Amino acid sequence: MKLSDFTFKLPQELIAQEPLEDRSDSRLMVLDRNNHSIEHKKFTDLLEELHSGDCLVLNNTRVMPARLIGEKPKTQGKVEFLLLSRKKQNQWEVMVKPGKKAKVGDVIEFGNGMIKAEVLEIMDGGNRLVALEYEGIFEEVLDQLGQMPLPPYITKQLEDKERYQTVYSKHTGSAAAPTAGLHFTHDLMKKIEEKGVAIAYITLHVGLGTFRPVKVENVLEHDMHSEYYFIEEEEALKINSAKNKGGRVIAVGTTSSRTLESVADEDGYIKKSSGWTDIFIYPGYSFKIVDALITNFHLPESTLIMLVSALAGREFILEAYEAAVESSYRFFSFGDAMLIK
Q1: CB neighbour list of residue 13: distance below 8 Å, 6 or more residues apart
Q2: In this structure, which topology does domain 3-63+160-340 adopt according to CATH?
Q3: Cα pseudo-dihedral 289, 295, 297, 301, rounded to 10
Q4: N or C, fewer C-beta in 10 Å, the chain?
Q5: How far apart are the first and last CA of the chain?
Q6: Beta bridge partners of 96
Q7: Which residue(s) pair with 118 in the sheet?
Q8: Cα separations in angstroms, 84 against 52, 128, 136
Q9: What pLDDT, in 10s, does the model give residues 83-123?
Q10: Bridge partners (DSSP) listed for residue 133
């Protein structure tokens, strides 16, 4: 399986740079795997596609405003941090730009000293382990100083940080949003539940590895990143109940899909669990629990387009992407959505 098997041509102007004013105003391409059909709808038409007894599975992770711009007090040289993961209470692994300005022992200040970071160690791959010093509650200080770590293909900063959060976000810990969920509004979710569709929440903290390009031509040689997840017992019961009653398990986003497939047993049932997953889903994979998927349009040659190709078939996905380009769909994080059923 070659990396070039998952490429397509995308005009730059179709990469959405900002979210729509109304979240649910986006378009929805519906792919039917049984009859190989493609329909063009609105996202609010999702109501027509869901049936009583189905279970919609949402990732309720919340994005940290993890991008910090600071300086070295002595030189005033600018330094950018991206918080990746907490190692101890006040120790973090961070990505630094430019790296040459962050040597072991250096101290960098953010917000005129509201946060001070001492570089403790240069880690494998060039990231730094830093010790943070601050007063008060870290999350509140970070919310005041930090910016959203938007993907590299988005060049505009958000005026409203909440537009890079789902309306149901709850557990802070992600370096990127589960973007398929950005289309949902409270009103739409209420209508979905009124139709008899169960809504279950799982948590997977999305890492920056989700944007890491695949650099090997043989896809099977790719080293997949690892991400932390947890599923509560009550949510697992909702999902299993829908399955027992013949309803579909519909994952919202590739992050929900990866979590569900990581924990499902061979019969397609899940239980309360937590841990780290580095599951890599590509064509040839047999899904154990996911019956349908709501997702955005993904980067060429990414692990995400490989996952949707595993569910719908590579040729069908590339055909759908070609149709999306012809119909001027908006691509990537702030773009339009696809339902694979």
Answers
A1: none
A2: QueA-like (3.40.1780)
A3: -30
A4: N
A5: 24
A6: 81
A7: 107, 131
A8: 40, 10, 21
A9: 988 888 899 999 999 888 899 999 999 999 999 999 999 99
A10: 116
Q: What is the C-alpha R_g of the chain? A: 21
Stated as kind and residue range, the H or E segment containing 309 is helix 303-312
pLDDT digits (tens, 9 = 90+) for 30-83: 999 999 999 999 999 999 999 999 999 999 999 999 999 999 987 888 999 999
CATH topology of domain 67-145: Thrombin, subunit H (2.40.10)
Instruction: State how far the Cα of 282 lies from the Cα of 297, in Å rounded to an integer.
Output: 16
Label residue 41 exposed, middle or buried (CB < 10 Å: 0-12, 13-18, 19+). middle
The domain ranges of the chain are: 3-63+160-340, 67-145
Amino acid in position 234: E
Q: Which residues of the chain have pLDDT under 50?
A: none
Rounded to two decimals, what is the model's pTM?
Answer: 0.91
Say if CB 239 and CB 261 are below 8 A apart. Answer: no
With H, G, I as helix, E, B as strand and everything else as coil, classify residue 194. helix
